[in-house]
# Entry
Amino acid sequence: MSVLIETSVGDIVIDLLVDQCPRSCTNFLKLCKAKAYNWSLFHTVQKDFIAQAGDPTGTGKGGQSVWGLIHGESRRHFVPELLPKLKHKKRGTVSFACVTPPAADGSTPQPVPLAASQFFITLAPQVPDLDGRHAPFGVVAEGLDVLDKFNDALVDDNGRPYQDIRIRHTVIIDDPFPDPDGLRIPEGSPEPTEKMLKSTRLADIDLLQPTLPPEEEERAHRREEANARALTLEMLGDLPFAEIKPPENVLFVCKLNPVTRDEDLELIFSRFGTIRSCEIIRDKKTGDSLQYAFIEFDEKDACERAFFKMENVLIDDRRIHVDFSQSVGKLHKEWMFARQQKLRGGSELQKKTQYRDDDPAAEAQYDMVFEGQDGQEQERVAGRSGGGSGREKSQPQSHRDARERDSGKGRERPERERDRAQDDGRSGYSRKEKYRGGRGDGNDGRRRRSRSRSGDRGAYKRRRSRSR
# Structure
C-alpha cells in the first residue's frame, strides 16, 4: 500500500505500514484521497533532522484528522499507534507529529499522545530523540534524492524555507481501507486558495513559469536563444537593433533554373504589382546563378498575392519555391551605409585641411624655421611677394639646389661631362680652377659644342637628301 506525493522539488513514494498502524494509515490515506494535503507547505525543514508538512495554514499550528474533517472540531485529533518496535532508525521514516494535551483540569498531562494531519519525514539515518514521542507509519521507498533537496534548502532561524516547497498533488496507489461515512472526495485537484498563496515567501520556480506543452516550451526556448543572439549582434554592430524584422514586401524565390535571367523573373512576377527590384543572386567570381532571388514589391498585398499564386510554378522547366524573405541583409546594408555616411560626414563633410598650394593668400599664415649652418639662432623666413612664388623666395639657395638635383633639372649627361672635361683640358684650365675664379666663365666651351653639333646635324641631313 503506497501513496505518491508530488512536490515542487520532486516526487516521493511512501510505503505504508497498514498491518502495524491501521488507524494512522487510514487517516493518512483518506486525507490524501480528500485532497487535504494539496498545496500545503513543508513549513519546517531542519537539516539532517526532519521535513514537516500537513498543515493547511502553513504555520505548524493547524490541521485536523479525517474524522475531524467529517465531524468537526470535536474529532480533530485521533490516537495513533505508538509501537515500541517502530523507531526512527532509517532515513525517510514517515511519522505523524504527536502532541500531549493537558488534562481537563490543567493539573497533569494525559499520558496518551494525539495526532491530527501533520506529518514529517526524517532526513538522517537515525533520530533516536523522536522515538516514543511520535508515531511512525511508513517509509520512503522512492525519491530519496528529494530528501537531499530538502537538506539543501535555505531556511531562516525558525526552519521556514525561503523558497516554498509545496505538496502539489497526492495519488493513492493502493487503498485497502473503506471510506468513512460522510467523506467527501472531490472530482479533481482543487486550486490553491488566495490565503494559501499569500502565505508564501518566494514561490517555487514552476509556479513562476507555468507548465507548457513540449512543443511550445521548445519554441519559447528557441525564441529566447534567438533574442540573446540578436542582442549580441546588436552589441557587435552587425545589426542596427536587436528587434529588427525582415521586410514584409520582399519575396524569396529558390530552385531557379541557372539560365533564368533577372528580366524574365521580373516580367513574370510583375503581374502581381509594381516591383522595386528583382535580383538573382550570383557568384561573385564566376557570375553563375546561385538559383535563388529576392523580389521586392512596392506593396505588401502584391507580395502576398505572389506568395499564394507562384508556389510550385514551372519556370524554365524548373518548379520554383516561394516564401516570404527572412533576410535582413538589405536593411543591414542600408543601415551600414547610412552609419558610415554619418561617421564620415556624408555630403556635409567639409575640407578641414588647408594647403598653401591651394590658397596662396593663406601662405602668409605659415612660417618656416630653418637652422643656420653655423649652428647659431634659427632664422624665421616668411613668404615674400614679387619675383616668383613666396615658397621659392622663402627657401635658402642650398635647399633650392637640393630640390633641383632631386627633380633632375641639375643632372648632366655623361657625354656632356666628357666633352666639358676635354674642353677644360684644351683650354689649359681644370674644372676646379674655373669654379675657383680662373680665366673665362666656363661658357665658351658650351657655345662651341652647340655650334659644332648643329653643323654636324645639317651635314647629315644634306647627305641623306642626296642619297635619296
